[in-house]
Specification:
The structure holds 2 protein chains of 2 kinds.
Chain A lengths: L3 E12 L2 E12 L3 E6 L5 H8 L10 E3 L2 E2 L5 H6 L2 E4 L11 H8 L10 H7 L1 H5 L10 H13 L5 E5 L7 H15 L4 E5 L3 H7 L2 E6 L2 E7 L5 H9 L3
Parallel strand pairs in A: 3-8, 3-9, 6-7, 7-8
Antiparallel strand pairs in A: 1-2, 1-4, 4-5, 9-10
Helix pairs in contact in A: 3-6
Chain B lengths: L1 H30 L6 H19 L3 H22 L10 H22 L15 E4 L2 E4 H23 L1 H11 L1 H6 L4 H26 L7 H15 L4 H21 L4 H15 L11
Antiparallel strand pairs in B: 1-2
Helix pairs in contact in B: 1-5, 1-8, 1-9, 1-10, 2-3, 2-4, 2-8, 2-9, 3-8, 5-6, 5-8, 6-8, 9-10, 9-11, 10-11
Bound molecules: adenosine-5'-triphosphate and magnesium ion.
The site of adenosine-5'-triphosphate has 12 residues of chain A, from strand 2 and helix 1.
Chain lengths: 235, 287
């Protein structure tokens, strides 16, 4: 595996008394696309929130390019080049489409992604740029959420269930756009319930089960049986 | 004609109330904080104006160049040092803390400036007037109203046409996701409070020129500002101006009927509007 851009070591996460992650050990190589699968409530979103600094972590649990980032605030993590397309899109309703995109650039990192590049990728967004983000269809909103994350010119981008609630045809479009997005030297973590989709775009896959890593494997060699076992915990 | 005059005077008075209200409205809009100390901060600004004008001999309007940045700095420090710590899912802590702050400011002002009523001496501006179509209008109320329009226009422009305004709206919409975008909400809240207290500084100076003030009058200014915000509809700055005007007109008409009724008439207008339209006249359409 190439040098890791991100490593978690013994990562735990809690919501009050409830522990949602247990000793998660995860490596993302430079330029690698990693898939994370797991049943509802397995802890995938929690893992994303820990990595991006939205949850407070214990010391020394997350390293980004050799730097300890476990204790940084989310805005500080973002400045280092980590961006997320959050579950359920979570656009800013008071902002227009264009403003949602522009706020993604707030971290002030330079790189290939700017308004023009995002509009080239998703031309419909340029037509809709002055509309309220809430007036868009689900698929278009997802494009805004992806574009917003790209505007930060991240080195590592996290996608949390980008196909959630979208029509199959739209999901197909978005997944067809993905290689063009990640191809530009970025690393990515893709959280996905659709296992076939997850395996097709990634080089390695992790499965979470009740807050623990239940499987880690290369995406092209992993067997269906291994996945079912890791997914549901049944033999 | 006398009634018309009362309405015009009330309208102009509404400009001052809108200035009381604008800072309240801004803070509530960005961080859902109801600042009980807002009125006392207005009075604090008037006293800062007094100190600056007596120390330097400056005209109170010129003193704005010192008092506005000073209040903005106080606002930023207050937010980062104290108020940010009170914000969360529970709405009670900020209410209690700003209530405590209100008491502290009042007592601090009493210590430093005593309870004696003070005014800011603006010379000819206080009594100058212009005749417009038979009515005689004071230059100060006209100027106040013009400033209120300019301030609200400026705030509106900042909100909808600048990166800072975008950040305000984003943080107001979703604090977590805004943080993911590289916006530190604690800093953004600090900037919002700085802007709000900058406006408060203008309100305080104009108040100090118009009437005498002492450390105890903050509560009344808070109520007027609060009523203007609610009448206009939360989160709508132009609505706040109209709210201020309605309050001002109700007060001057009340005073015309019986001088003792001025404040009461304002409260009655507020309650009637609240009863008929609980969300105010122009509530912001939520997205
Ligand atoms: N804010 C919260 N407070 C308390 N518990 C939470 C909170 N968010 C998530 N949980 C719990 O933590 C566990 C992991 O949730 P998480 O959202 O990370 O799962 P997930 O794998 O992303 O699921 P899904 O596929 O439904 O998105 C679940 O048991 C969930 O109920
Ligand atoms: Mg999830």
């Amino acid at each position: 595996m190439p040098d890791p851009i991100l490593q978690t070591r013994g990562l735990n996460a809690h919501y009050g008394d409830f522990q949602a992650l247990y000793d998660v050990e995860l490596d993302v190589g430079e330029g690698e696309v990693l898939a994370i699968i797991g049943a509802n409530g397995a802890g995938k979103t929690t893992l994303m929130r820990s990595i991006t600094g939205l949850l407070t972590n214990g010391p020394d649990q997350i390293h980004y390019r050799g730097q300890e980032i476990s204790r940084l605030r989310a805005d500080e993590v973002a400045e280092l080049g980590l961006a997320m397309v959050p579950e359920g899109r979570q656009l800013f309703p008071s902002l227009s489409v264009k403003e949602n995109l522009m706020i993604g650039a707030q971290v002030g990192r330079s790189g290939p992604w700017d308004l023009k590049a995002v509009y080239d990728l998703f031309p419909i967004l340029e037509e809709r740029k002055d509309q309220a983000s809430t007036s868009l269809s689900g698929g278009q909103q997802q494009m805004v959420a992806i574009g917003r994350a790209l505007m930060a010119n991240p080195d590592l981008i996290l996608f949390d269930e980008i196909s959630l609630g979208l029509a199959p045809i739209i999901i197909k479009d978005i997944y067809e756009a993905l290689p063009g997005i990640i191809g530009k030297g970025m690393s990515a973590i893709i959280v996905e319930q659709d296992i076939t989709k997850a395996l097709s775009v990634s080089s390695r896959v992790y499965c979470l089960q009740e807050g623990r890593v239940s499987l880690e494997s290369a995406s092209d060699t992993v067997s269906r049986e291994d996945i079912s076992r890791a997914y549901f915990g049944i033999e | 004609m006398e009634w018309l005059n009362a309405i015009v005077q009330g309208t102009l008075l509404g400009g001052l109330y809108a200035l009381f209200a604008a800072g309240l409205s801004l803070i509530f809009g960005v961080m859902r904080l109801v600042n009980i100390a807002h009125g006392d901060l207005i009075v604090l600004a008037a006293y800062l104006g007094l100190t600056v004008t007596t120390a330097t001999g400056m005209h109170p309007m010129a003193a704005l160049v010192i008092v506005v940045p000073a209040m903005a700095l106080i606002g930023y420090a207050l937010q980062r040092g104290l108020l940010n710590q009170t914000l969360g899912d529970d709405i009670l802590p900020p209410l209690l803390v700003t209530f405590g702050l209100s008491v502290i400011i009042q007592n601090g002002l009493l210590e430093v400036y005593t309870a004696d009523p003070q005014t800011l001496n603006a010379g000819a501006l206080e009594t100058a007037s212009v005749a417009i179509g038979g009515a005689t209008l004071g230059k100060l109320p006209l100027l106040t109203f013009g400033i209120a329009i300019a301030v609200i226009w400026g705030l509106q422009w900042t909100f909808y046409h600048t990166a800072l305004g975008r950040a305000f709206r984003a943080v107001s919409d979703n604090q977590d996701i805004a943080q993911l975008m590289g916006l530190n909400r604690r800093h953004i809240f600090g900037l919002a409070m700085a802007l709000a207290l900058g406006v408060t500084a203008i309100a305080g100076i104009l108040l100090g020129i118009r009437t005498s003030f002492d450390p105890s009058i903050g509560g009344g200014r808070l109520i007027f500002g609060f009523e203007a915000v609610i009448i206009g509809g939360l989160g709508n700055l132009w609505g706040t101006l109209i709210g201020g005007v309605i309050l001002g007109v109700a007060q001057t008409i009340g005073a015309k009927i019986d001088p003792g009724w001025q404040v009461l008439a304002g409260h009655i207008a507020f309650l009637v509007i609240l009863a008929v339209r609980p969300n105010g006249l122009f509530p912001r359409v939520s997205g």
